[in-house]
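Supplementary Methods. Inverse-folding protocol.

Structures were first reduced to a discrete structure-token string of length 522. This string, shown here, constituted the complete conditioning input.
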């Protein structure tokens, strides 16, 4: 049987399993909007942990991160991974329990905009509208990154046009999300998390064997200036079209290693700050059935994250040794996981490993689309414009929103030269700076008020755009990742504006004290 057909069969089997999960949970998911958007707060610790991490990492884990390591070596990928691991730990440690408790106290909030709105007991819905609008903006960009992953995966595997494969992948994700809602998404994410970590680990083990052992990989990496350094960065020599030059002997050419100072390290580790504002992760904290189970979830999540990030980085290092000239552009480098899987594994097994990429993409894009749809239908449509809307009307608007968002995401993703890592980094910064600071202050500072919250959200989001599109072009200190300065700027605005304006009402302070004292009933 043709290898491509075998790979296709494997992926169809996997996709059928995902759809089956959607069918099984469809009835429960469509019971009402709370069940559809938050699973009725019924997630167990394993599903909570694994689905949170799978929905967060996306195809970026299997394509974006290995691609960065393949292209310029260890430093960028490793410091990003370290920042993400630290951010994951502290998010589970300090945010999860307080948010689970506070979301119940805040009128049983089932979405992030609803939580912020109820937290400040607002009547006109200003925070709800702002939060919903920012979620729509940044999750549309996020969904686009997932569609890029689908397009690259299918076009590489089957030789079909990128744009066609992009649309096919987007349609599959869309149908699945419409069918099953949050509960089906979370359960399938649990399965997909297992597929992802299994696929990564399998390729690393086989890759080491194929490369002639760990020592051979290290020696090759050391021969490239800056490639295997934590404080240096490899610099591929490029032609006018951005393609890496190759010597007559068939070896990729690199220039002198670039300096990698403390500021750059802080910039890459700042990725960890993004976790405090990630709706797809924060919703899992709100959806777990018992606050007491979050400790177990934290341990499960950390084991998964550390192993997955480490092997993803190492795949890029191995790939540069075994396929040194297979991918000569920054965008193409993100296909190294696919190349290794196809080369090292029998077609049928390679198909299941490819399903790991599809798993990562689906586990994220369905989360992004669902949360964005809920932000519009539940928080803007029902929360602002039609407060007497029925659950049926909310669900209908949600599905229409899904269609519109998917269409916009497809348009954004049409350029096949898109780099997944870069698209994800911008959306990640947007969420981290917009929601991260106000989430922390909302949970742990009684004096924060509505004007401070609004100023922090708008200021954080605006700074992400301004830093990325204007200041970063100046280079030097301004070349750092936009999340770091935007997060700091948002935090300053929250404190200053809150202290300069009226203190929160007695009712808001009573809510805060009840949550801090742990007297909220689940």
């Amino acid at each position: 049987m043709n290898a491509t057909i075998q790979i296709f069969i494997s992926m169809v089997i996997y996709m059928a399993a995902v759809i089956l999960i959607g069918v099984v949970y469809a009835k429960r998911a469509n019971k009402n909007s709370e069940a559809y958007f938050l699973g009725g707060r019924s997630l167990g610790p394993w599903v909570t942990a694994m689905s949170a991490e799978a929905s967060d990492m996306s195809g970026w884990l299997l394509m974006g991160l290995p691609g960065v390591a393949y292209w310029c070596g260890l430093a960028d990928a490793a410091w990003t991974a370290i920042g993400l691991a630290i951010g994951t730990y502290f998010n589970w440690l300090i945010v999860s329990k307080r948010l689970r408790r506070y979301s119940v106290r805040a009128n049983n909030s089932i979405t992030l905009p609803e939580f912020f709105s109820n937290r400040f007991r607002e009547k006109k819905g200003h925070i709800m509208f702002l939060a919903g609008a920012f979620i729509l903006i940044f999750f549309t960009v996020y969904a686009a990154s997932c569609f890029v992953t689908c397009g690259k995966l299918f076009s590489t595997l089957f030789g079909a046009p990128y744009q066609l494969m992009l649309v096919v992948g987007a349609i599959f994700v869309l149908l699945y999300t419409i069918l099953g809602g949050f509960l089906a998404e979370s359960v399938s994410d649990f399965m997909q998390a297992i597929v992802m970590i299994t696929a990564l680990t399998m390729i690393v083990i086989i890759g080491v064997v194929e490369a002639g052992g760990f020592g051979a990989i290290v020696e090759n990496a050391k021969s490239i200036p800056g490639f295997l350094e934590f404080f240096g960065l490899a610099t591929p020599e490029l032609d006018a079209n951005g393609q890496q030059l190759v010597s007559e002997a068939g070896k990729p050419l690199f220039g002198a290693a670039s300096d990698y100072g403390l500021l750059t390290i802080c910039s890459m580790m700042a990725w960890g700050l993004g976790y405090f504002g990630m709706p797809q992760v924060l919703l899992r904290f709100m959806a777990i059935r018992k606050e007491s189970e979050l400790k177990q979830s934290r341990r499960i999540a950390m084991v998964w994250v550390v192993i997955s990030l480490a092997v993803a980085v190492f795949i890029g290092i191995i790939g540069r040794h075994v396929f040194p000239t297979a991918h000569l552009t920054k965008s193409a480098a993100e296909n190294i996981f696919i190349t290794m899987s196809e080369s090292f594994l029998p077609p049928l097994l390679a198909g299941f490993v490819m399903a790991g990429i599809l798993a990562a993409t689906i586990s994220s894009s369905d989360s992004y689309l669902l949360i964005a749809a809920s932000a519009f239908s539940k928080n803007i449509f029902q929360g602002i414009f039609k407060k007497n809307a029925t659950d049926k009307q909310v669900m209908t608007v949600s599905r229409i929103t899904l269609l519109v968002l998917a269409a916009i995401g497809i348009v954004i993703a049409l350029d096949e030269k898109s780099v997944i890592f870069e698209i994800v980094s911008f959306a990640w910064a947007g969420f981290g700076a917009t929601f991260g600071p106000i989430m922390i202050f909302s949970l742990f500072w009684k004096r924060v008020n509505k004007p401070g919250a609004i100023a922090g959200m708008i200021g954080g989001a605006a700074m992400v755009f301004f830093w990325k599109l204007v200041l970063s072009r100046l280079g030097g200190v301004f070349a750092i990742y936009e999340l770091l300065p935007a997060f700091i700027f948002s935090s300053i605005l929250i404190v200053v504006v809150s202290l300069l304006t009226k203190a929160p009402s007695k009712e808001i302070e009573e809510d805060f004290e009840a949550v801090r004292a742990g007297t909220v009933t689940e």
